From TrEMBL:
GO molecular function, one term: sequence-specific DNA binding
Transmembrane intervals: none
Annotated protein name in UniProt: AsnC family transcriptional regulator
Pfam families, sorted: AsnC_trans_reg, HTH_AsnC-type
Signal peptide, first to last residue: none
Annotated HTH asnC-type domain residues: 18-79
GO biological process, one term: response to amino acid
Source organism (scientific name): Devosia marina
Keyword NAD assigned: no
Length: 167
């Protein structure tokens, strides 16, 4: 078996799949990326400089796509969350591209997934209240190209949330 390696700066060759230490480091970064390199290194058994080199290599290899703060939607006034199933009039490449381009400009749409099954897309949206949702629903119906049907489901409460991957 031949193992493919990605050669990165500092002459460190990183396997296309992270090793056990890299996986441990990725788990810790998912849990809390705000910690210092010293603390992260201590947690995974690396010196600060080795930890920093591994983090940089994981970032450069695309395993880490960014860092962000997780905000509390409710405290910011977004009390309602909906999952909206969208069916299009056509599934042509042009129709899908037009829909996907248009949905990018709607800030209340947090996620958009192309689906296999009954719906063409599922959107996860947030709203402040019922009136805000009504305006959003009208905008979705009028603004998104090729929409044949919209079916909305309101989330009562989140039972489980996980932002990290099970690595």
């Amino acid at each position: 078996m031949v193992e493919l390696l990605l050669v990165l700066p500092e002459n460190r060759a990183l396997p296309l799949q992270p090793d056990a230490t890299d996986r441990k480091l990725l788990r810790e970064l998912q849990r809390d990326s705000h910690r210092s390199v010293q603390v992260l290194g201590d947690t995974v058994g690396l010196s600060p400089s080795a930890c920093h080199r591994r983090i940089r290599a994981l970032e450069e290899a695309g395993f880490v796509q960014g860092y962000r703060a997780e905000l509390d939607a409710g405290r910011l006034g977004f009390a309602m969350q909906f999952f909206i199933e969208v069916g299009l009039t056509s599934q042509s490449e042009a129709a899908l591209d037009a829909f996907e381009a248009a949905v990018q400009d709607i800030p209340e749409v947090l996620e958009c997934h192309l689906m296999a099954g009954q719906s063409d897309y599922i959107l996860r949206v947030i709203c402040r209240d019922h009136e805000d949702f009504e305006h959003l629903h009208r905008r979705l119906s009028a603004r998104l190209p090729g929409v044949a049907r919209i079916h909305s489901n309101m989330s009562i409460r989140r039972v489980k949330a996980r932002s990290g991957l099970p690595i």
